[in-house]
Amino acid sequence: MKTITVSEFRKNIKKYADLARTEKVIVNRGEGKAFAIVPLEEVEDPGYNPEFVKKIEKSLQEAEEGKTVTIKTEKELREFLDSL
């Protein structure tokens, strides 16, 4: 593991980005403010929930088909929300 300062990281970004592929690189910004530099493929990000993505895709399809609701006033918005 390599620990460096922000200044050192700024001066040699490429060097430390390359090094992060083979070992952990910690950039220290001061007391209690440190960050790890890791390759993106190592970040454990589950992405979006598949059900959430399906809902968005369905909504986009419905909008393309003209299945939309036009709301012009607060009263219409409240009525629409109450109908759900």
Produce a short descriptive summary:
This protein is an alpha+beta fold.
Structure write-up:
With 84 residues, this protein is an alpha+beta fold. The chain has 2 domains: 2-41, 3-Layer(aba) Sandwich (YefM-like fold); 50-83, no CATH class. Helix content is 45%, strand content 14%. The protein contains 4 helices and 3 strands. The protein has helices at residues 6-11, 13-19, 50-64, 74-83; strands at 2-5, 25-28, 34-37. Strands 1-2-3 form a 3-stranded mixed β-sheet. Strand 2 and strand 3 form a beta hairpin. The mean pLDDT is 91.
Topology (elements, then pairings):
Elements: E1 2-5, H1 6-11, H2 13-19, E2 25-28, E3 34-37, H3 50-64, H4 74-83
Parallel strand pairs: 1-2
Antiparallel strand pairs: 2-3
Notable characteristics:
84 residues, alpha+beta, YefM-like fold, 3-stranded mixed beta sheet, 4 helices, elongated
The gyration radius over C-alpha positions equals: 24 Å
How many extended strands?
3
Largest sheet: 3 strands, mixed
State the CATH class of the largest domain: Alpha Beta
Biggest sheet, strands in spatial order? 1-2-3
Q: Separation of termini?
A: 54 Å
Globally, the shape reads elongated
Structural class determined from secondary elements: alpha+beta
Average pLDDT works out at 91
Which assembly state applies to the chains in this document? single chain
Structural domain count: 2
Tell me the CATH superfamily of the largest domain. YefM-like domain
Work out the helicity level.
Answer: 40-55%
Number of helices: 4
Strand content: 5-15%
Could you say what the CATH architecture of the largest domain is? 3-Layer(aba) Sandwich
Low-confidence stretches: none
Along the chain, the helix and strand elements come as EHHEEHH
- CATH fold annotation of the largest domain: YefM-like fold
InterPro entries: Uncharacterised_MJ1172, YefM-like_sf
Pfam family, one: DUF2683
Protein name: Type II toxin-antitoxin system Phd/YefM family antitoxin
Family: Belongs to the phD/YefM antitoxin family.
